Amino acid sequence: MSTLRNKVQLIGNLGNDPEIITLESGKKLAKFSIATNESYKNSQGEKVTDTQWHNVVAWNKTAEIVEKYVTKGKEVAIEGKLTSRSYETKEGEKRYITEVVVNELLMLGNK
């Protein structure tokens, strides 16, 4: 059960092409966002689609796969963990961000 403590599984489509960063150490980082959709009927019986955006980061070999094969609009399944961090803007404002750090990535849809 300890593996279930911080585990996220999502299937969604990329909103933009991934941002690929190569660090000084040679490690690769891929940053992208995916959209997940949930549909339901409102009180008037109309179908409503709720879209949620998720910030995703992938490291090393997974980042290399993302760089080569994953582009805007592609459907992917990811499994990973949630992380939260904060940073300061140039104006001195503190910002918080929650991201999914990918452990596994599966490309779905057409080739």
Concise summary:
9% of the residues lie in helices and 59% in strands.
Layout: helices, strands, pairs:
Blueprint: E1 8-14, E2 19-22, E3 28-41, E4 47-59, H1 60-69, E5 75-88, E6 94-107
Parallel strand pairs: 4-6
Antiparallel strand pairs: 1-3, 1-5, 2-3, 3-4, 5-6
Structure commentary:
This protein has 111 residues and is mostly beta strands. The chain has a single domain, classed as OB fold (Dihydrolipoamide Acetyltransferase, E2P), CATH 2.40.50.140. It is 9% helix and 59% strand. It is built from one helix and six strands; from the N terminus they run ββββαββ. It has a five-stranded mixed β-barrel with strand order 1-3-4-6-5.
**CATH fold description:** OB fold (Dihydrolipoamide Acetyltransferase, E2P)
Q: Over the alpha carbons, how many angstroms does the gyration radius reach?
A: 16 Å
The helix-strand sequence is EEEEHEE
Described by the principal axes of the CA atoms, the overall outline is globular
Structural class: mainly beta
Write the CATH architecture name.
Beta Barrel
Tell me what portion of residues adopts beta-strand conformation.
over 45%
Q: What is the CA-CA span between the terminal residues?
A: 36 Å
Strand adjacency order, main sheet: 1-3-4-6-5
What's the structural domain tally? 1
